[in-house]
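Attaching the record inline, Q. Sequence:
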Amino acid sequence: MTEPVITTLLDTDLYKYTMMQAVLHQHPAAEVEYRFRCRTPDVDFSACFDDISREIDHLCTLQLTDDELDYLAELDYLKPDFIHFLRLFRLDRRFVELECIDGRLELSIRGPWLHTILFEVPLLAIISEVYCRHHYPCPDWQQAREKTQQKIAQITQEEGFRFSDFGTRRRFSAKWQKEVVHTLASALPKQFSGTSNLALSRLIGRPPMGTMAHEFLQAFQALGPRLIDSQKAALDAWVGEYRGRLGIALTDVVGMDAFLRDFDLYYAKLFDGLRHDSGDPVVWTEKALAHYRKLKVDPNGKRLVYSDSLTVTKALELYQRFSGQCRPAFGIGTYITNDVTDTTPLSMVIKMTRCNGQAVAKLSDSPGKAMCEDDGYLTYLSQVFGVQPPVVNKN
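Structure, as predicted:
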């Protein structure tokens, strides 16, 4: 019998728990919806569907053990009342709707934000691994390990380079991610900062990496006092929750230009840095550096984190270009956890689409990454923030 894809609720990214704590304390009654989208065209999930459904059923039987709760309690930004809440927590299968229509996977999540926020990462990991099991049953592991060693050889040449594993959601398998993370931690003790995956962070004895995701800022489009103030409301809520900890702000929910208009001197001093997740990283960096300098904040003291579809080569190029002007760091995902076969891994996401019955959107700085189910709201959001409305692919 094949081992389940997810065997612990720690097999997810840190930022799901940090956002979940903020939701518990600030918006425990918020209701949300999420939608799955596979950006890779013409993918047929028919053969995978039953296995995906069974894996989701198993996921919803899991609870955190006492040892796992003790580990979370050691993270000093997670508070005792949140740990007590997690002691009782279990994902509810009734919040997930799953269908396969003409080979297309239709997945939605609806329910209380507090009780649905942990679904995203394990569901994506399940879909990715089940798909890989069906389509690549006998991968060339020697070739995969050689690819990892080639990456290590590249990184070894840059002593100051720092990167983390951000690859849980689209990994080839849980077993492969575990092997890669152990290999990187052993071979690159200085350059490899760790992983966003809590279970693997615990195994390798390094702090988990991460802060917030798009959904946190998206939700405040419905939760904030005014739409134009939604980004500032989300940043204020984050600062109120963590009081200077976990201080990397995500910039691309309504685009970098609109973000920087809100990111004034107050936030520039409060937050340790920014995260890039769409658009040209060189253009983004130049804008960030210019903004800090305009505010008379030294960017050499700020961490700029890059996490958009990175390869080691691309990350090293960015490091070499900007290492003397800021503190660059890199979250590399699919390229290190799903670089197993010679085919391109699936590009897929689960994004929040509604909060408290109102449409919310991620505009992004990259064509094709925008996601919204309400064209009228998308136009309105773009007008409010003074940005060009994106073309949304709803397939």
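The chain has a mean pLDDT of 96. The first helix runs from residue 14 to 26.

More tomorrow.
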